[in-house]
Amino acid sequence: MNGRLDTPMPERVVRELAAAAAALVTDHDVLGTVTNLLAGCERCLGATGSGIVVSRPDDQRLEFLAATSHRAEDIELYQAQTEQGPAADSIASGEPVSIGGPRFVERWPGLAEQAKARGFKSIYAHPLRWRGQTLGALNLFFAGDEAPAGTEPVAQAFSDLATVVIVHSGSVSITHVIGQLRNALSDRVLIEQAKGVLAYTENLTIDTAFGRLLTMSAESGRPLSEVASDIVENLAHPHSP
Length: 241
Hints:
This protein is of the alpha+beta class. It has ten helices and five strands. Helix content is 59%, strand content 15%. A hairpin with a 6-residue loop joins strand 1 and strand 2 (62-67).
């Protein structure tokens, strides 16, 4: 799929949500599926980046989980480390937060400066809600001063799907939810390592390395975390089967 916006938004949303739903009925891993969801949401809304920040189950500190590019990852890491920004506010309130233009600079000058340096002028954050609890926030970054009209229902649909991916549907306990979040965060570390390996061994940028990792996962039909594990393992033990 491409990022063209020449089809009506409802048609794009249906197409992307259908693709996302199809992924849920096959073998998948949390990070790979969530990243593809983020990319689909970007395409629907014309965002220039996206990511997810979660609240850690043990101490509720914020932690970066996934992003579609290195630029977006930088902003998510900044929000998680400072615990300030639309993501933190959305997680705390359980409500969407949208900010851009002069208000963005006035409220979070440091974050606004970091975002502007990476080509983002506004951020829209939507909470990942599960049975009364807010697990994290899906964040969309835009090149313009505000999110486009119709962003909220689209972001909600993708946020809900991302939440289901993390916790799985059906009757699950909070212990299971905590376990799934911990596993997802562990997978994220592994994927970061694999991106670095590909960037180094194939002389790629981090964004290109991540794109290659996603392509390898899609073409092999294997979970993203499994492909990442193989890449890291092959670097450590190059002569192993």
